Amino acid sequence: MAVTTSSVAGIVSGRNPLEYEASAPWTLFLFQVILITAMCQILHYPLKKLRQPRVIAEVLSGIILGPSVMGRIPKFTSTCFPPESKPGLSLVANVGIILFLFIIGMEVDLKFVRKNYRSAFSVGLINMAIPFALGCGIAKGLYQQYRQNNEDMPPIEFTTYMVFIAVAMCVTAFPVLARILVELNLIGDKIGTIVLSAGIINDLTGWILLALVVSLANSGSGVNTVYILLLTVAWFFFLAYPVRYALKYYYKRFTNEMVTGEPSHMSMVLLIGLVFTSAFYTDIIGVHPIFGAFMVGVLVPRDNGYVVRVTEKLEDIVHIVMIPVYFVIAGLGVNLGDLNHGIDWAYTIGIIALAMVGKVAGGLMAAKLNGLFWRESLAVGVLMSCKGIVEIVVLNVGLNAEIISERVYSMFIVMTLITTFLTTPLALWVYPQSYRERSHKKKGSDSDEAALLRTQEEISVDNFQDVRFSAVVLLLNNIDTIPQLMLLLKNLQTSKESYQINAIHLREFTTRTSHLLEASSKDEANFGTNDHDQGNFTSIMAIFTAFSSILNMKSSIKSILTPVDSYAVTAIEQIGSKSDLLLSSIPASSLTHSPEGIEIIENQYKQLFSRCWANVGVLITSHGGTWDQSKTVHCVLNHNNFLSSSDLLCLNIVSSLAKTYPSIHVHVSSSTGASKEFEHQFDSQLKSSGPKVDLTVSYFKDFNDLISTSSKKELDTAQRIFVVPYDFAECAEVLKISRLGQQESYDDILVVKSHSESTQ
What is the DSSP letter of 522? Predict the structure, then answer.
């Protein structure tokens, strides 16, 4: 199309940029996209603080920009969204929803469903059956009130209308549901497993039923409906077998993509061409183009994270531009002013109540049949009540197919917003983090160690040999501290026994669909990440694996996506029993160079100590120096000649370190001075760790006394390791030691806390 002179000159020639011109439709379209994107971002910012999905902001943007709010401003709609511009917006929106359904299809993991088929089908289908039945019931009243005598719409059979209303009541938004599970840190929980597998079945069943409804609405007779369904099934099998096997043959014969997981330009051309071809086919047979795109997404190979990389190449333009336009158009079709009768709001409230009750009751009953506790079963029902994106798409299909009227459409949009908004807060209320932590604490049995450490009065130095950790969960966030951590663990192992080291690397979960695909996949080994994340994790894994091999230690490592504010919770959930040790590290420079560094301890690391139900240790490294035998081990006992369980854990660690670093200095907090009996216990126990142990015991009243007993003058050339209980570090003394270490020769501070002192 030739560019006209006026469109080039623009406002210089006096042209109104908001006036629609058929010769330059892109001018108004670009303004509309800017307005829509800005409105969505503005609304999403406060809603994000409430843990609400982006779709709520997008639909609310449409309602605000539509006839319900800003449309009441004179000439706003005719200027910003004139009728002539709607086809251009609709075209972009529908291309976006086709690509979006392709992405949703790639989120469906059929292997995961097969692994959890019992819970997937029982929870998924029962959770649909109850709201489906309730939808059939309310459909009768809606049909008689709003559809039967509506002369502005073509006639439709009640059966078709009833099935559509029932489908709209029973669907669950799998993409939004998966994001909520990740953000609430439930993706690895048994509830997350059940909800995720049931959500996939719910999603697949909902799309099949919707395809049936659309074919019923578009066909002139029952025979045509059968033909449409047969053609749809035939196309699916054509994609599932000849096309899918041809794609796999192409990937293995002509490319290396199943190994690298990186799609080439030609592969993307083939996939996008296949998506549009499938969408075109399902459209011309009378279903809807989104079903064809969804089928292709389900059948894309998932080897080595291939679907993640394909999603990364598509998601930005789809999610930033096209999908907001689609959902804003959905919101523009909502006119709350049409709901101007009492009966309208009565039906709206009824729809909301039946949708919530049906989904919650269905999930509750099905989850209970799968052996969950009542509270867990209720949480499953609440999570399955999420509508979100899928519901909006279903309603738009029904509105465009003229199955439902605009008034009923507005009612269901209100229901969708409310049920989606309530999902996260209700889930947190029903299944709070505190309940989950108590459940995790019950994993470990009440062992002899737990009985030993239950009361402080029973603790003495004689018992410290009984305190052991059976396994270590190693939290790796900083490459520089890995050598010190691994050497520390090697020195803690005894000749009689060794323990499994399970290392985890936490990465920030974002709103990207590629992150959602990776986080929701149970086959973590087959999933990659973006180049930055992949490179960082690969480096950490290589260094960790190398040290494990050199030091002959049993180990494993994995990477986990989780929101930043859930780092501590995610790490804690990797613990298997109370006797495990959760060990992490932090460079001392982050505590001394800026106030922001101190916030790290006060936030993430403070959460580790306060919420963990097992043993916890954090290694603060000052210089990254070598661990040679010239190091002196300093142990601080901060309880006035009285031992806490954390003191006992400190002594146990010092006893193991004494085999390699025989120079041991124990600092005891005491208001009364030396206690020979107390000192004798250290002498007999710690010296028994090895024949070369050189033990000294000193007493201090305050921090200045402690520093004076370990002054540079006394240990001029030694490097020092401080092992301190958490309550000593809580008093900020550990920060003072760290600052001193920057000037002198301190290398490492190990802060520990016993599980018996964790929050009950």
Answer: S
Tell me the CA distances in angstroms from 114 to 109, 186, 193, 381, one per residue in order.
9, 20, 12, 22
Q: How many CB atoms lie within 10 A of CB 731?
A: 11
CA 700 – CA 706 distance, rounded (Å): 6
Query: What DSSP string runs through 541-555?
Result: HHHHHHHHHHTT--E
pLDDT of 63 over the 60 cut:
yes
pTM of the model: 0.76
Q: How is residue 437 written in tokens?
A: 């932590």
**Residue 422 near residue 612 (C-beta atoms within 8 A):** no
| 669 in Cβ contact with 731 (< 8 Å) | no
Order the strands of the 663-669 sheet from edge to edge: 555-562, 500-508, 471-475, 581-587, 615-621, 746-753, 720-725, 632-637, 663-669, 694-700
How would you label 561-574 residue by residue, b for 16+ Cβ within 10 Å and e otherwise?
Answer: bbbeebbbbbbbbb
If one counts every other C-beta atom within 10 angstroms of the C-beta of residue 439, the result is 15
**pLDDT one-digit tens code per residue, 232-253:** 999 999 999 999 999 989 988 8
User: Residues 467-525: pLDDT tens digits?
Assistant: 667 788 898 877 777 888 888 888 887 656 667 888 998 887 776 766 677 766 655 44
Q: Which residues of 140-159 are buried (b: 16+ CB within 10 A; e: fewer)?
A: eebbebbbeebeeeeebeee
Please state, as a whole number, how many other Cβ atoms lie within 10 Å of the Cβ of residue 677. Answer: 7
- Backbone φ and ψ for 719, nearest 5 degrees, come out as -100, 145
- Say if CB 709 and CB 698 are below 8 A apart: yes
Residue that the structure tokens 């929106």 belong to: 93
- 208 contact partners, CB below 8 Å, separation of at least 6: none
State whether the Cα torsion 58-59-60-62 is positive or negative: positive
Provide the percentage of residues in the chain whose pLDDT is more than 90: 31
Query: What one-character DSSP code corresponds to residue 576?
Result: -
| 31: its two tokens | 């303004």
Q: Are strands 694-700 and 663-669 parallel, antiparallel or unpaired?
A: parallel
The 3-state DSSP class for residue 188 equals coil
Cβ-contact 658, 686 below 8 angstroms: yes
Which pair of structure tokens corresponds to residue 696?
Answer: 């000294």
The CATH code of domain 448-757 reads 3.40.50
β-pairing verdict for 746-753 and 720-725: parallel
Nearest one of 759, 482, 443 to 575, comparing CA atoms: 443
| Cα-based distances in Å from 176 to 120, 123, 420, 480 | 18, 18, 9, 37
Provide Rg for the chain, Cα atoms: 32
Q: Domain residue spans in the chain?
A: 24-431, 448-757
Phi, psi of 570 (to 5 degrees): -65, -45
| Topology adopted by domain 24-431 | Na+/H+ antiporter like fold (1.20.1530)
Is there a contact between 310 and 263 (Cβ–Cβ < 8 Å)? yes
DSSP 3-state helix, strand, coil percentages of the chain (rounded to 5)?
Answer: 65, 10, 25
Give CA–CA dist 192/431, Å, rounded: 12
d(CA 94, CA 92): 6
CA gap 106, 100 in Å, rounded: 10
pLDDT band at 715 (very low <50, low <70, confident <90, very high): very low
Number of helices (H), then strands (E), belonging to the chain: the values are 35, 10
Backbone angles phi, psi at 563, to 5 degrees: -60, 150
Structure tokens at 367: 């989850």
C-alpha count within 13 angstroms, C-beta hemisphere, residue 172: 38
Helical axes 374-384 vs 117-142, angle rounded to 10°: 60
**CA angle, 98 as apex, 94 and 103 as ends, to 5°?**
140
Helix (H, G, I), strand (E, B) or coil at 723: strand
Angle at 387 between CA 381 and CA 391, to 5 degrees: 145
